[in-house]
Task: inverse folding
């Protein structure tokens, strides 16, 4: 074994020991499960703008679309009538978001965020025009409590399409986060 190989082996052993010590120093609460539980479901199409009805068609540049994903939702979204996501128990969803057949003048993005909140400064998926389809797995919170007294969550999510391209959008839900059922 060369001296550089021995040196590398010693460095890796030291790094592993340091990592184990750091993990053992975490307080017990750091390993706790938290107040929510992940529930997986068979993939369920909640939105498909290729077959959507009035107000749920192809997204033009610089537009947004309000959609429902919990409880029972609008058949005109082009997907199923329900994915079995409980409302108001669900606090967020796991999903695959797909940009289908984008066209336009440049690279673009979709951002999904809870209804009646400010959009985040990050995208959920970036895509280029003339790509057949591009998908990304995401977690996104949903509007589960009225944003202010006397108001309601009229929708669960907002999908915003950036300024450079139009696209069809598919949203397949694969799970959700909610408080665990009582034991």
Result:
């Amino acid at each position: 074994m060369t001296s550089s190989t021995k040196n590398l082996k010693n460095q890796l052993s030291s790094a592993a020991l340091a990592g184990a010590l750091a993990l053992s120093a975490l307080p017990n609460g750091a390993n706790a499960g938290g107040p929510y539980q992940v529930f997986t479901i068979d993939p369920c199409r909640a939105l498909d703008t290729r077959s959507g009805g009035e107000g749920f068609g192809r997204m033009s540049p610089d537009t947004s679309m309000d959609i429902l994903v919990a409880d029972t939702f609008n058949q005109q979204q082009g997907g199923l009538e329900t994915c079995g996501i409980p409302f108001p128990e669900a606090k967020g969803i796991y999903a695959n978001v797909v940009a289908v057949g984008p066209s336009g003048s440049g690279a673009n993005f979709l951002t999904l965020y809870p209804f009646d909140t400010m959009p985040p400064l990050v995208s959920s998926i970036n895509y280029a025009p003339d790509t057949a389809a591009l998908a990304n797995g995401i977690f996104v919170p949903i509007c589960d409590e009225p944003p202010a007294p006397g108001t309601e969550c009229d929708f669960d999510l907002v999908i915003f399409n950036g300024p450079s391209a139009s696209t069809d959008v598919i949203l397949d839900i694969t799970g959700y986060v909610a408080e665990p059922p009582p034991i």
